[in-house]
Specification:
By secondary structure, this protein is α+β, with helices and mostly antiparallel strands. The chain has a domain at about 15-100. The protein contains 2 helices and 11 strands. The strands form 4 sheets. A 4-stranded antiparallel β-sheet has the order 3-2-6-7, with no helix packed on it. It has a 3-stranded mixed β-sheet with strand order 4-1-9, with no helix packed on it.
């Protein structure tokens, strides 16, 4: 009896409040560094992970066509309209840049973004004393003073 009442209450909540499932999708591009805009929201640069909340009408597919990748050259492309997903797992989608002029510019921008992300990671691993605990440190010993980068 209690189990039945709980099921009815949960079903009523889903109908009135609307049940949704969170799907994590990693959006990537070649070359990386494309700006991702979904609807009117800018989410940053590829690769990145976005949480989609979808109604369970079609639980194994979400519509990601509202997400577009725009490279620095102006080239752009849309992510797929029917993206197969599973709840609780990360779905990865690779979007290839269209074959239009400006690839070299986009490749340079991708390298710059990669370098900035590496710098950001380096500084985020620096503790309050200024010491970096990264395993990729470069150290030199000049005149008895050790300096690490």
């Amino acid at each position: 009896m209690f189990k039945t009442k709980c099921s009815v209450v949960l079903a009523a909540l889903c109908v009135t409040a609307g049940c949704s499932t969170k799907y994590q999708v990693k959006l990537d591009s070649t070359p990386q560094g494309a700006e991702v805009v979904c609807g009117k929201s800018n989410h940053g640069y590829t690769p990145l992970t976005i949480d989609f909340l979808e109604d369970p009408k079609e639980p194994s597919y979400i519509d990601a066509s509202g997400c577009k990748a725009r490279w620095s050259s102006g080239a752009s492309a849309s992510y797929p309209a029917h993206l197969k997903v599973s709840s609780g797992t990360l779905t990865e989608v690779m979007l290839h840049r269209p074959n239009v002029p400006g690839y070299e510019k986009d490749e340079r921008a991708a390298q710059q973004i990669k370098q900035k992300n590496q710098e950001k990671k380096f500084f985020s691993e620096t503790d309050s004393t200024g010491k970096n605990h990264s395993s990729n440190m470069l150290c030199s010993d000049v005149g008895g003073a050790k300096t690490c980068l």
